[in-house]
Write a structure and sequence with these properties.
By secondary structure, the protein is an alpha+beta fold. The chain has five helices and three strands.
């Protein structure tokens, strides 16, 4: 009977430059940078409620932690677009509310 191989450690996989993990890591860094740009362009109370920002296809998606902040961020569309260097024709701004974690 053969032994079951041990799973590789995540740090080893990331260090080895595996294509899939490398792309995932690069995408994560890009999303973190985009989120940082948007947070930096907003006033402190608004920025504190931005969970994540992503750009996909024809949408720029800003995820916030509550519906109240979603409504407020829609008024900040010009600042958000300026932060990521996009005009109204480039992508539709979508503000989404993150679903609360289930304990």
């Amino acid at each position: 009977m053969s032994e079951t191989p041990k799973p590789a450690k995540l740090a080893e996989l990331l260090a080895s430059g595996g294509q899939n993990l490398g792309r995932l890591l690069a995408r994560t860094r890009d999303l973190e940078a985009l989120t940082g740009k948007v947070r930096a362009a907003l006033p402190a109370p608004d920025a504190d409620h931005v969970v994540a920002v992503s750009a996909s296809g024809h949408e720029l998606v800003v995820t916030v932690d509550s519906a109240a902040w979603a409504a407020r961020l829609r008024f900040s569309e010009p600042a958000i677009r300026a932060a990521v260097g996009q005009s109204a024709e480039d992508r539709k701004l979508v503000v989404r509310v993150r679903q609360p974690a289930v304990p």
